[in-house]
Write a structure and sequence with these properties.
Elements lengths: L21 H9 L10 H4 L4 E6 L5 E8 L2 H20 L9 E9 L7 E7 L5 E8 L2 H13 L6 E4 L2 E5 L4 E2 H8 L8 H17 L10 E6 L6 E6 L23 H10 L2 H21 L1 H13 L5 H15 L10 H15 L12
Antiparallel strand pairs: 1-2, 2-3, 3-4, 4-5, 5-7, 6-7, 8-9, 9-10
Length: about 350
């Protein structure tokens, strides 16, 4: 689902929610992602009133602020602070006593229909957020693959049908395209283009779909000469569900076309080859460093049903053609397809890459 903003995203077909299997639950326990939580998604659904939330210009957003019964508020706020402590400091309540829950918002758009909790530091008014969502196996696999195969680390917790996610800060992709792209002198175009190539490749290899502009953020970090740029996914609902290869390539979404065209104007084909290969090499290094953990995750993923069989067969045929490897045709799960993607780039290291460009 989309994070804060005033966009009107195009409707997409709702993906069914997949339950957390015993194998995945065991993985979450092993790596301390599963906790006894003082707040559940169901408890947060028991609000009494909603107030439409507007942005700083007064325009409506995708969120409503929710109001709970007065008798519940004090206990609920303390429980939410405890959740934040587990997410950030492994449950050490002694360092969060000065924090308070400022607001709880609810969004009905997207598969996860999340709650967003705003936490404020009473001493300096610094604020942070976290999200409470309905647990879904696809989303958990998506977050964990992001944690293991991307340069980004992610914290989350789960219990039963409740999922707690930390906030991913950055400029929403659609806002970056409309207000930042080509308008900020501190952003060197080649760095934006480089990051799009890398982001495109990361999504494709680990099969994260639906990365249109409102489902990712752009993180801008000032450097001693020029700002660094990183594109980060913030929506993991469409992990390994669709049967179309291009669904996993952000470059093919209409929403992203201005960004793609901008990057094409500033990037030579040979340089794009280089950046794509760099990201493939880094993904293999990350996979090697987390080989045991990634192996357990993909084993669980291979045993789970995350998409209809016809989608898996359609995608494996397209991937077999893309990588020119018939090994894909033996795959019967999305987890097996991701494993084959990693094997494909491992085999291709040192070979020339044939790029796939957006058609004119």
């Amino acid at each position: 689902m989309a994070e804060p903003g005033t966009r009107n995203p195009l409707p997409t077909q709702r993906k069914p929610s997949f339950p957390i299997s015993p194998d995945l639950r065991g993985y979450l326990h092993r790596y301390k992602r599963e906790r006894e939580l003082p707040v559940t998604y169901a408890r947060l659904r028991a609000f009494q009133e909603v107030i439409p939330l507007t942005d700083e210009t007064g325009k409506p957003t995708l969120w409503d602020t929710v109001i709970y019964p007065a008798s519940e508020m004090s206990a609920l706020n303390e429980a939410l602070k405890e959740v934040y402590a587990w997410l950030k400091v492994d449950g050490d309540l002694s360092v969060v006593s000065h924090l308070y829950v400022d607001r709880v918002d609810f969004c009905t758009f997207g598969n996860s229909t999340p709650f967003r909790v705003r936490i404020v530091n009473a001493y300096n008014d610094n604020q942070d957020y976290f999200y409470v969502k309905k647990a879904d196996a696809s989303r958990i696999y998506g977050i964990e693959l992001e944690h293991l195969l991307s340069p980004n680390r992610l914290n989350f917790l789960s219990q039963g049908d409740t999922l707690i996610e930390e906030h991913i800060a950055g400029v929403p992709g659609d806002i970056f395209i409309s207000d930042w792209l080509g308008r900020r002198p501190e952003l060197k175009p080649i760095r934006v283009a480089k990051e799009l190539v890398k982001f495109n490749e990361r999504c494709f290899v680990r099969l994260l779909g639906d990365m249109r502009s409102y489902n990712f953020v752009v993180v801008v970090t000032p450097d001693f000469e020029e700002a660094q740029v990183r594109i980060r996914a913030m929506d993991f609902d469409q992990q390994s569900y669709d049967g179309r290869k291009n669904f996993y390539l952000p470059q093919f979404f209409k929403d992203n076309l201005p960004l793609v065209r901008f990057c094409q104007r500033h990037l030579r084909l040979e340089t794009a080859h280089q950046y794509r290969r760099e990201e493939q090499t880094l993904m293999l290094q990350r996979a090697s460093l987390a080989s045991e953990r990634l192996g357990r995750l993909l084993h669980s993923m291979s045993r789970d049903t995350l998409a209809p069989q016809e989608k898996i067969h359609s995608l494996r045929a397209e991937l077999a053609e893309h990588y020119q490897r018939t090994d894909y045709l033996r795959c019967e799960s999305m987890g097996a397809l991701i494993r084959e993607n990693l094997e494909s780039i491992r085999r291709d290291i040192g070979k020339p890459i044939v790029p796939e460009l957006v058609p004119e």
